[in-house]
């Protein structure tokens, strides 16, 4: 697991208060996944990595691994 993926997993676990998140975890299957959790996670990711993600692209992501890829791409675009 890359550093980016590991950090994204930790952020998702913190926001959802659920242990055992993996890159394959689907956001829509998480018990604590709400629109508020999605916005909190977006803010946490932008603060942690110093990137700004497109809201539509972010909301279209289906799982933690895809989100990690999105963050990695944003980091590469800087």
UniProtKB/TrEMBL annotation:
Top-rank lineage group of the source organism: Bacteria
Start and end residues of each Carrier domain: 1-75
InterPro entries in the record: ACP-like_sf (IPR036736), PP-bd_ACP (IPR009081)
SUPFAM superfamilies named in the record: ACP-like
Pfam families noted in UniProt: PP-binding (PF00550)
Name of the protein: Carrier domain-containing protein
Organism (species): Catellatospora methionotrophica
């Amino acid at each position: 697991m890359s550093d980016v993926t590991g950090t994204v997993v930790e952020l998702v676990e913190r926001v959802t208060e659920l242990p055992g998140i993996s890159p394959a975890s689907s956001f829509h299957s998480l018990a604590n996944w709400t629109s508020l959790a999605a916005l909190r996670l977006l803010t946490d990711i932008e603060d942690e990595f110093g990137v700004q993600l497109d809201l539509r692209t972010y909301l279209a992501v289906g799982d933690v691994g895809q989100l990690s890829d999105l963050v990695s791409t944003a980091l590469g675009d800087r």
